[in-house]
Design a protein that fits this description.
The complex is a heterodimer of chains A (114) and B (115). Chain A is an all-beta fold and 114 residues long. Chain A is built from no helices and 11 strands. In chain A, strands 2, 4, 5, 6, 9, 10 and 11 form a 7-stranded mixed β-sheet that branches. Chain A has a 4-stranded antiparallel β-sheet with strand order 1-3-8-7, with no helix packed on it. In chain A, a hairpin with a 2-residue loop joins strand 5 and strand 6. The mean pLDDT of chain A is 92. With 115 residues, chain B is mostly beta strands. Helix content of chain B is 0%, strand content 56%. Chain B contains no helices and 11 strands. In chain B, the strands form 2 sheets. In chain B, strands 2, 4, 5, 9, 10 and 11 form a 6-stranded mixed β-sheet that branches. In chain B, a hairpin with an 8-residue loop joins strand 9 (87-95) and strand 10. Chain B starts with a strand and ends with a strand. The mean pLDDT of chain B is 90. The chains are: A mainly beta (114), B mainly beta (115). The A-B interface holds A 4, 33, 35, 42-43, 45, 47-48, 55-58, 90, 92, 98-108 and B 32, 34, 36, 41-46, 49, 51, 90, 92, 94, 97-108.
Chain lengths: 114, 115
């Protein structure tokens, strides 16, 4: 069974630009979550989607948005990039409707903002 | 709201020695608890989880953790450390029935294995 796939793995942007990250969950998984990982703040929850609906959202500004498609693939978008948005963005999928929290993570997309 | 505290940002043990990584949680209701491991340039991999069944949970790679409600702890142990155990370890909590905050992670503990 293929794991969670995130693209691109690495990218460099400049301040003010926008970026779109993609995540393909494990086949059959309908829940996709996104996390931001930085050395200073650690792992922080961004949002969670289930069956194309955003179920939960973390404490991030509106510049951070996401969506999920009918095939469960998900994208997240960050507009008007700031230096502080440099981070590893991790996508995770889950197969349980009740969502006990067991997540399967991708390898992440490392974003550098210059 | 739930929170997680991992004591010790870095833990160093000798190869073959006991590994003990500490995790305390704060939650107003019984939680689900998890330990994840992250190797360099990789995502997180689930080691084990507690979901209100047995309090002693066995995971992969010889790790186990014990849920102690009275101490609000979920410490991770392994009897004998291997060099391959060197990685970052994260404790995480999620409220039963889900929660608006997703998984809440601790700051992580970097495990160093001395030869």
């Amino acid at each position: 069974k293929a794991g969670v796939t995130q693209t691109p793995r690495y990218l460099i942007k400049t301040r003010g630009q926008q970026v779109t990250l993609s995540c393909s969950p494990i086949s059959g998984h309908r829940s996709v979550s996104w996390y931001q990982q930085t050395p200073g703040q650690g792992l922080q929850f961004l949002f969670e989607y289930f069956s194309e609906t955003q179920r939960n959202k973390g404490n991030f500004p509106g510049r951070f948005s996401g969506r999920q498609f009918s095939n469960s693939r998900s994208e997240m978008n960050v507009s008007t990039l700031e230096l502080g948005d440099s981070a590893l963005y991790l996508c995770a999928s889950s197969g349980t409707v009740a969502n006990t929290g067991e997540l399967f993570f991708g390898e992440g997309s490392r974003l550098t903002v210059l | 709201a739930q929170s997680v505290t991992q004591l010790g940002s870095h833990v160093s043990v000798s190869e073959g020695a006991l590994v003990l990584l500490r995790c305390n949680y704060s939650s107003s209701v019984p939680p689900y608890l998890f330990w994840y491991v992250q190797y360099p340039n990789q995502g997180l991999q689930l080691l084990l989880k507690y979901t209100s069944a047995a309090t002693l949970v066995k995971g992969i790679n010889g790790f186990e953790a014990e849920f102690k409600k009275s101490e609000t702890s979920f410490h991770l142990t392994k009897p004998s450390a291997h060099m391959s155990d060197a990685a970052e370890y994260f404790c995480a909590v999620r409220l039963l029935g889900g929660g608006a905050d997703g998984l809440t992670f601790g700051k992580g503990t970097h495990l160093i294995i001395q030869p």
